[in-house]
Each structure stands twice: as C-alpha cells, then as structure tokens.
Specification:
Helix content is 58%, strand content 19%. It is built from 6 helices and 5 strands. A 3-stranded antiparallel sheet has the order 1-2-5. The longest helix has 65 residues.
C-alpha cells in the first residue's frame, strides 16, 4: 500500500489518490484502489457526516444555552427592577426620604418623565406656538422624545396640549462613609 493511503487517510488524500489513479499518474495499484473505493472512502464519508452532525448538535446546544442564559439575565434584571420599585413604594408609603444602613444609605429620588402623544407633529403646532413663519411650506415634522423635551422646556404650553408629564420615584444607594473602609 502506498504511503498516502497507508498513513494519511484524510478525505482530501483519498480523493487525490482516486484522482491520480484515474489520471494514471499515481503509484496506486488496482488492489489499493479497490480498497479505497469499497472500504476506506465509504467509511471516510460516514465519518465526515458524523463529524458534521456532531458539530451541528454542539452548535444547537450552545445556542440553547445562550438562549437560556439570556432569559435568565432578563429575568434577574426584571426582578431587580421590581424589587427596587417595591422599595421605592414602601419608602413613599412610610414618608421616608432616606434610610441609613451600616455600609449603604438609601435615598428616595424622583425622575420627571415627559412623553408626547402624537409621533408626528405638523407645521400647525409650530405656527401655533410661533416657532416658525406660517408662510413656510407646510410639511410634517417627525419629532422624537429628546426634541419634544427641549420644546416643552422652552414652551410649557406644548406639554399641556401635546404631551403628558409624570414623576417616577426610584431608590438610589450611596456608600455610607462610616461603613466603607
């Protein structure tokens, strides 16, 4: 048996040996070629498919693990948010603004949230609040939350007509200078 067939039975080497035999340039005998075609190549093809199936199964398993991990991260994150909201509601109901701990202090803080009702505001709103010249070609303006907040700060009446304002409480932890060493 030739070196290629005896030592290196990779798929590539077996195909190359078969090709060399067909082109009559290899040193493979008819008996070796018969062995390659009937035993070595079918086994190698099956081994290649087994390798691919194993790899596909490994990828699917890793994707499932990633999905499970992402679900766990999301669940834990939501639990933390709910816990903090519960703490804020408890402090509000007690009327407590700050609570000391041995290492951390907790404070109740507030965040103003401004939302706009329509996602598209027409030229009429800008004209109504004298922000543009009424002779400008009429078109619709797309506005996002940041732009709306800036407009509402300059023109509070815009907020009354086109938006709503809410205040959300939340808890904030700060290190207690006595407890942190």
């Amino acid at each position: 048996m030739t070196d290629i067939v005896a030592k290196k039975r990779s798929f590539f080497n077996l195909v190359k040996a078969m090709q060399d035999y067909d082109n009559e340039i290899g040193e493979i005998t008819d008996e070796e070629m018969d062995n390659i075609v009937k035993e070595l190549m079918p086994t190698k093809v099956d081994d290649c498919k087994t390798f691919i199936l194993h790899g596909d199964a490994l990828v699917a398993g890793l994707k499932a693990e990633i999905s499970t991990t992402q679900d766990t991260i999301s669940s834990v994150g939501k639990s933390i948010v709910r816990f903090k909201d519960s703490m804020a509601r408890s402090m509000e109901s007690m009327g407590a603004q700050k609570l000391p701990g041995k290492i951390w202090n907790i404070a109740l803080e507030y965040r103003k949230n401004i939302e706009f009702v329509p996602s598209t505001i027409t030229t009429a709103m800008y004209v109504e609040f004298a922000m543009i010249d009424p002779n400008i070609i009429k078109r619709e303006y797309k506005i996002n939350r940041t732009n709306f907040k800036q407009l509402a700060e300059k023109h509070p009446e815009i907020l009354e007509k086109y938006g709503k304002e809410s205040v959300k409480s939340f808890v904030k932890f700060r290190g207690n200078k006595k407890g942190i060493k």
